[in-house]
Amino acid sequence: MAEKIRGPRPPRQEVRDEAADIGVEARLAAGVLLNAALEGRGGLDAALSFREVAALPGPDRAFARAVAMAALRRLGEIDQILDRRLQKAPPLAVRTILRVALAQTLVLETPAFAAVSTAVKLAERDPKTRPYKNLVNAVLRGVDREGPGLTTAESNLPDWIAARWRATYGEATLAALALVARDEPATDLSMKPAVDPAAVAASVDGEALTGGTVRTGKRGDVAAWPGFEDGDWWVQDAAAAVPARLLAPKAGEIVADLCAAPGGKTLQLAASGAAVVALDRSETRLKRLRANLERTGLSAEIVAVPAEDWEDDRTFDAVLLDAPCTATGTFRRNPEVLRATKPADVAKLADVQHRLLDAAAERVKPGGRLVYCVCSMEREEGETQIIAFLRRNPAFKTAPVDPAALGAPAEALTPEGWLRILPSMWAEKGGLDGFFVARLDRVA
Ligand SMILES: C[S@@+](CC[C@H](N)C(=O)[O-])C[C@H]1O[C@@H](n2cnc3c(N)ncnc32)[C@H](O)[C@@H]1O
What pTM did the predictor assign? Predict the structure, then answer.
């Protein structure tokens, strides 16, 4: 029997149980999803509507997605195992069949007979892969019989990302980040102020974290969980809930959320009782924000326009800028971001953030506050932006931050008074999304 690649979280029981009954088409779809994710930004989402994926019954589609995500999280390790057994590189279509099969046996604990027989059938189907049918069988049976051998978590990170994070955060943190990147994260819930986190935790078999987030290992369709229909809570990573808490909106204030969709932070702001203007350039993403407001019974004025072009004279007590970014901090939930992001994206997005920060600053009343955040690990999108912003805008000063009061790890506080939340923090609880957060107050 092959050993499982070790990780702190148990595999998905329902995926394991169903895998033996799921057929070749789902494995084909897993390969389509995997390759689309490797091709570039937005690839995985686009591939969900491809015929091979969309035509599958619901459970098969969920299985295909779970396999593709497992393969993306462990791609480096899977390739290490394969490369030890392959004398020369096979065509991509063959490697994909092998990757999909190993993601099943080594990560999702799919029974080997099911993963291997479907892989061989897939190879048989296509004239291009048919000559490799015996190779596929031999490699997979070999791994099953002899075990995968040693693998390194850091191999799952693209080289340029690993080099960047090593230079920025050091070797020990890089190793911790690579470990937390291997496993599917828990689901975090934020709730309305009137809803008791302990009651939500009990209803979803979860745990209330400091700050009020509930974390649960529960799986499946969140829309079927207790409290969803009533709009008591919404899905939001514990780290993503920190920026709106830091902005600290109050009833009677007017607040702008300048990159608002799909709206997790807008819901937090609206739940405070402040009057909220939620702006986003994407009408499509705002549809999800509208649905979220409707379900939770909260309200906000919605504006669909780029923040820089917004013709409106109002200024605000508080402004949140959750700027578009590389999103490299969300790799636990979206392992494809590490493959889709290219080095040039960092500088491109830093330019957008620079422009948006200046547009946001103009909206802050004297004496008001601005919170800037990005779910990126890259300094150019975080610390460097704020250093440059404070130079350009002497009317703004960094405001004191108390991580404990915000539900953020104490070690996230930087010497400058900002928060650099790393996914490897709170690792014993499964980690957090990576975020940079700064609060800048405008002098009265
Ligand atoms: C990080 S996401 C925001 C997530 C959101 N705050 C939440 O908590 O759910 C960034 C958003 O910025 C929007 N965006 C990008 N460029 C923009 C611009 N120039 N003006 C306004 N919104 C923009 C994108 O459409 C995207 O919805």
Answer: 0.93
